[in-house]
Amino acid sequence: MRIEIVTIGDELLLGFTIDTNAAHLARELAALGVQVVRRATVGDRAEEIAAAVRDALDRTGAVIMTGGLGPTADDLTKPAIAALFGRSLALDPAIVAHLERIWKERGRPGALPATNLQQAMIPEGARVLFNRHGTAPGIWLEDGGGRWAAMLPGVPREMRGMLADELLPLVAARAGAGAGVVRSRTLRTTGIAESQLAVTLGDLAQRAEGLPVAYLPGVDGVDLRLTARGLGADEAERTLAAGAARLRERLGRFVYGEDDADLAAVVLDACRARGLRVAVAESCTGGVLAARLTAVPGSSDVVEGGVVAYDNRVKRELLGVDDRDLQAYGAVSEPVARQMAAGVRERLGTAVGVGITGIAGPGGGTPEKPVGTVWIAASVEDAAWAARTLFIGDREEIRRRAAQAALDMLRRMLLFPAERG
Q1: 326: Cβ–Cβ under 8 A, 6 or more apart, which residues?
Q2: For a tag site, which of 153, 202, 217, 291 has the least CB within 10 Å?
Q3: Residue 103 to residue 112: CA distance in whole angstroms
């Protein structure tokens, strides 16, 4: 099966909203063995919507759309596609009742506004895709020649839920059994540059178990993605597992997880396994590290707390940093980072302490300490470690890279104690 995706909305064209819907659709369809051959984005004009869908139907006979199903004047997807298929729109009483029930359940005053009734207008002969996640129903519309168009809401949470609940089963039934799938597995690495990864991988740099290796660099590190195409589901999973195992064996400690793994969760699990609690002291990151840790559900049994020691007075008075070291070496230095880690650990009574101090920019750098210079120190039970790194990027990227590097330092100290420095 070949499908095209059309995402609809002026906010997408203008760049005010990132189009995550098309990416999610492509991944989910690939897992079924469905080939997405083209993706297009159009604005909120009926003629543009109709033209994009008409062209897609002419090429593949199958289109999935997101957006333009709401109750406002700029939601024109249904009338545009109904007209394209030569269908009229009619009010669906069952959907009206559903909308009225939702309105009351949400405690909204008065009766359902008349504008919401637009969402209950359904093209003649269409199949309604029930929305358990919001108000706008989806639509499956088909012509006599087997060509079809599916309409889903543009709100990502609603779209993903309806895709799983309603549309994917329909598409899977159309695709039929035995279709080769497209499956991927991602290894997440940090602490190693993209170029060095290729050198370390050597003969595996291009293919592992016959699968191509793609490099995906980002702020948190470099992801390595293996993709299996045209295989059955079980064979694809076996091949991906074998390929990932070979990459892990070659890269060792640089791999911290797979797919959506979060380094903060890895660190928390390592601390939890040893009964260790963590405290953090941050200067240039301003709480980014603490936010990463506490964003993980269940982190309260590991994270004690933290101090944002932005000013030197806070470093001295709350963390016990020696003023003589601040004067001699500056706030961005190894002695200060080490004392921040030890100080927050002592004051909060934890086994693990982390200190981060640096220059996030865009100003404040010097020839000796340019923007991006960050000192990170960690204290874990009887061991301490400190490292200086020069990060690239803008202010936000430097702060995020520093937090990731601090997490990686903790991971290595906890899981690879022979590397402690």
Answers
A1: 312, 315, 316, 336
A2: 202
A3: 6
Please write the tens of the pLDDT for every residue from 60-92. Answer: 999 999 999 988 888 899 999 999 999 999 999
Instruction: Report yes or no: 375 and 334 within 8 Å, Cβ to Cβ.
Output: yes
pLDDT digits (tens, 9 = 90+) for 8-39: 999 999 999 999 999 999 999 988 888 899 99
Query: What is the spatial order of strands in the sheet that 383-390 belongs to?
Result: 303-308, 278-282, 352-358, 373-380, 383-390
Which H helix or E strand runs over 160? helix 156-162
Asked whether the predicted pLDDT for residue 110 surpasses 90, the reply is: no
Quote the CA–CA distance of 104 and 88 in Å, as a whole number. Answer: 30
**What's the gap between Cα 338 and its chain centre?**
33
- Which of 233, 258, 283 represents a domain boundary (last residue)? 258
User: What separation in angstroms does the CA of 342 have from each of 197, 207, 283, 290, 335?
Assistant: 34, 45, 15, 16, 11
Host domain of residue 395: 263-419
Residue 351: CATH number of its domain: 3.90.950.20
pTM for this structure? 0.79
Residue 24 and residue 168 share a domain: yes
Cβ–Cβ < 8 Å for 380, 415: no
H/E element holding 410?
helix 395-415
Q: Provide the number of structural domains found in the chain.
A: 3
Q: What SS3 class is residue 293?
A: helix
Compute the distance between CA of residue 260 and CA of residue 256 in angstroms, rounded to an integer.
Answer: 11
The DSSP secondary structure of 197-244, one letter per residue, reads: HHHHHGGGTTEETTEEEEEEEETTEEEEEEEEEEE-HHHHHHHHHHHH
| 34, 135, 179 from 176: Cα distances, Å | 10, 31, 7
Amino acid identity, position 182:
V
Cα 147 from Cα 134, distance rounded (Å): 27
Strand 89-91 to strand 352-358: parallel, antiparallel, or no bridges (unpaired)? unpaired
CA 135, distance to chain mean position in Å, is 26
> Which residue's structure tokens are 């420095």?
421
- CATH assignment at residue 127: 3.40.980.10
